[in-house]
Structure formats: C-alpha cells, structure tokens
Design goal:
Layout (H helix, E strand, L loop, with lengths): L4 H12 L23 H13 L5 H8 L3 H11 L9
Length: 88
C-alpha cells in the first residue's frame, strides 16, 4: 500500500503549522479516572474493609473505594501482602 503525494503534502502542511485549523497535535484533556488509585487513603480503606469482613468480594471493595478491580487486586496482593489460604 502506497501513500499518495497529496496525503504527504497535506501532512507536511499540518506539521509545519501552515493550516491553523489542523495544528492541534497535543492530547486533549479527557475525562478519566485519576491516576491516584494507589495512595495511602485507598490502602487504609481496603485494609479496613478486609479486616472487617474477610469474605468481602473484589468488586465490592473496588466499588466502595472507587478504583478498578485490577488496582484493588494490586493493593490487596502486592501492597498489603494478603493471599488466599485454603483450610482444607
């Protein structure tokens, strides 16, 4: 697949800034979850929830704290050092 000369010329104009309508090359602000999913308040809240009810589910913790299940799992296993133990 080849790129046409017209497309290349258009890209050159955009990157040189000759067309002010198309020179937005920075990321626009997005509405997303903050990157502070691993802070002391979250760790303490997750730890308190687990100590209060050791059978609490991942989804319940994630919903209560306001973080993703992946972040919750990371906090529980890596940061707090909890693991599943079988009593059989």
């Amino acid at each position: 697949m080849c790129i046409s000369d017209c497309a290349v010329r258009k890209w050159v104009r955009i990157f040189k800034g000759e067309d002010p309508r198309e020179t937005i090359l920075r990321d626009r602000k997005r509405s997303a979850r903050l990157l502070s999913a691993l802070n002391t308040a979250h760790r303490e809240k997750v730890d308190c929830m687990i100590r209060a009810n050791r059978r609490v589910k991942q989804k319940e913790i994630a919903d209560e704290v306001g973080i993703s299940k992946e972040r919750e799992h990371h906090i529980v296993t890596t940061v707090l050092g909890y693991r599943k133990v079988s009593a059989l």
